[in-house]
């Protein structure tokens, strides 16, 4: 294989990756990281080689969601370059900004500092060959998103939202930012999280706590695929806290995420 030049470093570490996908949300707390972690382990379960970048500088949650708190990635030398080796769990290669900074420090990061740290994470990780690299973006739609998206060059973006009216405006903002002339990145689809709640003792009932079909209708309006609707499930929340994504154990959750994964793979 011909050696690439030093200034092509960005291309080097990402060149073995077939599909780069960014996961975005208009605002925090809608379940973006939950969706990313469950989608990652589902794709791995389906036999794909999967990597995950947790770039949520305001609150990196992948160390906790993957049970990797305190993990310290080692450095490896590849073709004369010092690279960060991702940490593997549940068949997913994980790199989190949380591996490198204390949470309370990450929270006060500002623009250029955060962007520089994330740039390094994008450029200097030994990903090797991957089918999918998922990129969990920070919530919102700011300069850091534009910079990161420009450098990471995703093939597509998954937007996560809840059906709630006020959250939908932020979903639209996200769609417009990615598909605008500036970035011009296609939206692979929308995931509606917290779509309804079904109590165990009333398995036929659906309670639309945050509203009904908000993202579904939005997807229709913007002619985008609705990749899936995820109900509010206690084990989803517990799985995030205990470090084992719920799609590895709860059949309802794993069915939902398999459906989403099929939409992503298609
Ligand atoms: P974000 O990444 O958008 O900030 P998180 O993924 O951290 O959001 O989710 C916020 C909180 O909501 C977490 O405590 C998570 O466990 C919980 N949560 C997310 N989705 C669900 C769901 N479908 N059912 C139950 N709890 C959920």
UniProtKB/TrEMBL annotation:
Any idea which GO molecular function terms this record carries? 4 iron, 4 sulfur cluster binding; ATP binding; ATP hydrolysis activity; ATP-dependent FeS chaperone activity; metal ion binding
| Keyword line | ATP-binding, Hydrolase, Iron, Iron-sulfur, Metal-binding, Nucleotide-binding
Q: What does this protein do?
A: Binds and transfers iron-sulfur (Fe-S) clusters to target apoproteins. Can hydrolyze ATP.
Q: Which family does it belong to?
A: Belongs to the Mrp/NBP35 ATP-binding proteins family.
An individual GO BP term: iron-sulfur cluster assembly
Oligomeric form and interacting partners? Homodimer.
Q: What stretch of the parent protein is included here?
A: 86 to 351 of 358
Record protein name field: Iron-sulfur cluster carrier protein
Q: Which residues bind ATP?
A: 26-33
